[in-house]
Amino acid sequence: MKKYSELVITDLKAAAKALSNDALVAIPTETVYGLAANAFSENAIDKIYQTKNRPQTNPLIVHLHNFEQLPKVAKTIPKEVELLAAHFWPGPLTVVLEKSDAISTKVTAGKNTVAVRVPNHELTLALLRSLAFPLVAPSANKSNHISPTCPQHVFNSLKEYSPLILDGGICSKGIESTIIGFENHKPTIYRLGSISKEAIEAVLGTSVQLANHEVSSIAPGMQKKHYAPRTPFISCTNLQEELKKYPNKKIGVLFFTENPLAKQMLHYRILSSSGCVEEAMANLYKMMHELDELELDVILSELAPEKGVGASINDRLTRASS
Ligand code: TXA
Ligand code: MG
Question: For residue 98, how far is its CA from the centre of ligand 1 (angstroms)?
Fold first, then answer.
């Protein structure tokens, strides 16, 4: 097992060389760190599934350095996607399209659709420009755990596999991309993420539905339990009442904003003192990781206001607590 200092690099050439040799490299994006591999190498893709202990049924997102590359990986590009890409790329929006023949079904877990985005991080864009292939990159953590938002999180989750970690600092958005598909020409959000439903509707000029993952398996990564800390995690609407259920327990609380109850708590974090949902989103995983490391009996969390990316925060809190 290698040390943190041996794995964390800033040298793009070293990262490119490793990827060209079918090794995995953790890469920074504006959302979370990704565990990247050559999207055109089945051998490299296999390593992702093994390393993450990811179910073979859960497809990967392809990362490109610009919109012009899209025809290489997708067969048809609907007008809505041109519009969305012009507005949000590079950025945290993933679109699901009919895959091209260049994309292996190893990437798509057997589906004929492929998920694609252009990440907004200078280092990773420069890396992608230097490569002759796109990168597939799921979040750089063991399957079902909390996604990493800094190199240390990646190291903590994957150190036994010793992937190189390209250091791009702390992820500015802090939760995964929003995923949208166009089945039967109806724009449908498969995963809420760092772009809100409202922001997408404003660009498309039409309302967008949320996929019901209880009945659909379009995005197999959206099963109920996901993004979970190791510590039992409970999100609730009435924190005061919930706290009463755990006398003599070592409790941690994740407050959305300033709260008088914090005075009684030994272990807590506040997502945003000013109640700003964007700031809360950027802090969410970092603070979940921090509380998870305190060996607590239980972590209780308050929900965010259900507007804008507040809905995405609540999606993650609810999944973590199921
Ligand atoms: O922000 C992000 O999207 C990050 C960074 C690294 O780019 N990546 C990420 O990847 O979150 P991952 O593998 O943790 O989540 C990918 C999600 C899964 O829920 C998967 O089921 C869904 O994308 N997905 C991938 N291909 C799909 C497809 N063809 N149709 C529907 N959903 C798909
Ligand atoms: Mg993930």
Answer: 15
* Mutation pick for ligand 1 pocket among 103, 106, 128, 139 (CB with most ligand atoms within 8 Å): 139
The per-residue pLDDT for range 273-303, each reduced to its tens digit, is 999 999 999 999 999 999 999 999 999 999 9
61 Cα nearest atom in ligand 1: 25
Domain ranges of the chain: 4-175, 233-320
CB under 5 Å of ion ligand 2: residues: 139
CATH class, domain 233-320, is alpha beta
In tens, the pLDDT along 149-160 reads 999 999 999 999
Same fold flag, 4-175 and 233-320: no
Q: What is the pTM of this model?
A: 0.96
CATH 3.90.870.10 fits 4-175, yes or no: yes
Burial 114-126 (b: 16+ CB within 10 A, else e): bbbbbbbbebbbe
